[in-house]
């Protein structure tokens, strides 16, 4: 009979577990919840109920407490996300700069709706609140990287690169624009009537 028991995530990662726990004093071990969640999320693209329980047991806290931390951050997911997890900022600055149109474009192009992952596990799409980079709106986050001033051309360019499994590095890291991506448009200044 096939053994259906799933091995604990940290069973064969005792060195990693020790390294994480040693970062915190005995009285503050529960602070290790974030790096433990991160280790699981990075490896499995989500943190299942089983893993939540495992982390809770390691730290001597309840599974509800672990879920409480997870629910506060868009980084952690209870269901698997895609190899390319695309988060679109939908807060005011990005919305005014065109993130709604960008979402529509991506949803149509990838045939996904907010919160969905495709059946191949390649793409997932999620609307999120302010990513903290409002001056470079509209902003996309793909996995851990920010892509700023993303217009339609850049969006298309990014989708093409992900489809080829060659995701472009953020243009800021490459110190500028590149072929296939339009220049960022300067923000338009709105005249304020009655203000001197
Ligand atoms: S509103 Fe989009 S990054 Fe702040």
What would your notes on this structure say?
By secondary structure, the protein is α+β, with helices and mostly antiparallel strands. The protein folds into two domains: 59 residues, Arc Repressor Mutant, subunit A (Orthogonal Bundle); 80 residues, Glutaredoxin. Helix content is 36%, strand content 9%. The chain is built from seven helices and four strands, in the order ααααβααβββα. It has a four-stranded mixed sheet with strand order 2-1-3-4, with helices on one face. Helix 2 packs antiparallel against helix 3 and helix 3 packs across helix 4. The protein is elongated. The C terminus is likely disordered. Bound molecules: FE2/S2 (inorganic) cluster. The site of FE2/S2 (inorganic) cluster has 12 residues, from helix 5.
List keywords for this structure.
binds FE2/S2 (inorganic) cluster, Glutaredoxin, disordered C terminus, Arc Repressor Mutant, subunit A, 2 domains, 196 residues, single chain, 36% helix, four-stranded mixed beta sheet, alpha+beta
Can you summarize this structure?
By secondary structure, the chain is of the alpha+beta class. It contains 7 helices and 4 strands.
CATH topology of the largest domain: Glutaredoxin
Bound molecules: FE2/S2 (inorganic) cluster
Coarse structural class: alpha+beta
| Strand coverage percent | 5-15%
Order of helices and strands: HHHHEHHEEEH
CATH class of the largest domain: Alpha Beta
Give the biggest sheet. Answer: 4 strands, mixed
CATH superfamily of the largest domain: Glutaredoxin
- Rg from Cα: 20 Å
Q: Tell how many strands the DSSP assignment holds.
A: 4
Distance between the amino and carboxyl termini? 81 Å
Gross geometry = elongated
**Overall number of structural domains:** 2
- The order of strands across the largest sheet is 2-1-3-4
Number of helices: 7
Low-pLDDT runs: 184-196
How would you describe the oligomerization state of the chains in this entry? single chain
Helicity range: 25-40%
């Amino acid at each position: 009979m096939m053994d259906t028991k799933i091995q604990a995530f940290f069973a064969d990662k005792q060195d990693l577990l020790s390294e994480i726990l040693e970062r915190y004093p005995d009285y503050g071990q529960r602070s290790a919840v974030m790096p433990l969640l991160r280790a699981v999320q990075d490896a499995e693209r989500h943190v299942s109920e089983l893993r939540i329980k495992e982390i809770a047991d390691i730290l001597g806290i309840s599974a509800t407490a672990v879920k409480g931390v997870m629910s506060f951050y868009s980084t952690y997911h209870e269901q698997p996300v895609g190899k390319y997890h695309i988060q679109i900022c939908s807060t005011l600055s990005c919305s005014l700069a065109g993130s709604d149109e960008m979402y529509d474009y991506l949803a149509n192009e990838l045939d996904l709706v907010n919160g969905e992952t495709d059946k191949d596990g390649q793409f997932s799409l999620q609307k999120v609140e302010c990513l903290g980079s409002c001056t470079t709106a509209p902003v996309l986050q793909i996995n851990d990287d920010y892509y700023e001033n993303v217009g339609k051309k850049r969006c298309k360019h990014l989708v093409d690169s992900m489809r080829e499994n060659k995701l472009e590095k953020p243009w800021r890291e490459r110190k500028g624009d590149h072929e296939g991506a339009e220049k960022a448009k300067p923000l338009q200044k709105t005249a304020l009537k009655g203000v001197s």
